């Protein structure tokens, strides 16, 4: 595999090329951990977001028709259902947060993306509603600061797979929505999450997929 790595463009090959420059540090074990990190960080986060995405689509059937080329629906899904609902850090040293709060070495500092995504204080009235149009200003997509839309974390350790995740979810959603219309199997059943590291949908998403005759069909 190492011999081919110069010709290939996948992520492991990129790291194999880099490892030649620093073989002491970038051992096979180190490379294994990087790939494992990518697999763990990338699988449940994207799969769960897709479940919540199809759930909000079922609740908003008109949007299903026009969604195919849009990204704001995914962003709005992640605002309400962040795949990493709680995240945090442990203080390496005594410090003072920007709001003046003193923290001591060893303290845990957590932020709750799930709550932040639903706060009227941050998102205004209707913060709990699924409104992809909130991301538009004069009809043009207007991204928010990652410190406000925190689903991918922010700063130097922001998610490395963010753009890849959007691409992957768009491809899958496009393929499925091209052929099917989705309806919740039971619209009256309350859908909720299971408390875990990622925001799993409790009992998974139960939907009916109805073949489409054409994209304009609602
Ligand atoms: C909806 C999809 C995703 C969401 C919401 C998401 C969210 C996050 C969050 C919140 C973090 C910060 C964790 C922390 O340091 O405390 C993170 C880190 C990371 N993510 Fe994602 N992620 C997604 C998809 C992906 C995908 C598809 C990949 C790769 C294929 C990926 C790769 C990574 C990596 C490597 C890190 C660690 C970055 C670092 O520590 O410097 N993620 N992600």
From TrEMBL:
Gene Ontology terms describing biological process: lipid metabolic process
Family (UniProt): Belongs to the cytochrome P450 family.
UniProt keyword list: Heme, Iron, Metal-binding, Monooxygenase, Oxidoreductase
GO MF term (any one): oxidoreductase activity, acting on paired donors, with incorporation or reduction of molecular oxygen
Names of the cofactor(s): heme
Pfam families: p450
InterPro entries, sorted: Cyt_P450, Cyt_P450_CS, Cyt_P450_E_grp-I, Cyt_P450_sf
Listed name of the protein: Cytochrome P450
Origin superkingdom: Eukaryota
Binding annotation for heme: 159
């Amino acid at each position: 595999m190492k011999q081919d790595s110069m010709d290939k463009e996948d992520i492991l090959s990129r790291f194999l090329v880099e490892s030649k420059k620093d073989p002491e540090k970038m051992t096979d074990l180190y490379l294994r951990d990087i790939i494992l990190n990518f697999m763990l960080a990338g699988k449940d986060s994207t799969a769960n977001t897709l479940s919540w995405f199809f759930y909000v689509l079922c609740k908003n059937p008109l949007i299903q028709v026009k969604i195919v080329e849009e990204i704001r629906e995914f962003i709005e899904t992640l605002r309400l259902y962040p795949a990493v609902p709680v995240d945090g850090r442990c203080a390496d040293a005594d410090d003072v947060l920007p709001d003046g709060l003193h923290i001591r070495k060893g303290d845990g500092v957590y932020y709750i993306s799930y709550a932040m995504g639903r706060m009227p204080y941050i998102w205004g009235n209707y913060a709990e509603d699924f409104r992809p149009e909130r991301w538009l200003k004069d009809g043009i997509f207007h991204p928010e600061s990652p410190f406000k839309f925190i689903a991918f974390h922010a700063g130097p350790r922001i998610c490395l797979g963010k753009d890849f995740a959007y691409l992957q979810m768009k491809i899958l959603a496009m393929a499925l929505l091209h052929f099917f219309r989705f309806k919740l199997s039971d619209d009256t059943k309350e859908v909720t999450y299971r408390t875990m590291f990622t925001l799993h949908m409790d009992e998974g998403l139960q939907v009916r997929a109805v073949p489409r005759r054409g994209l304009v069909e609602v």
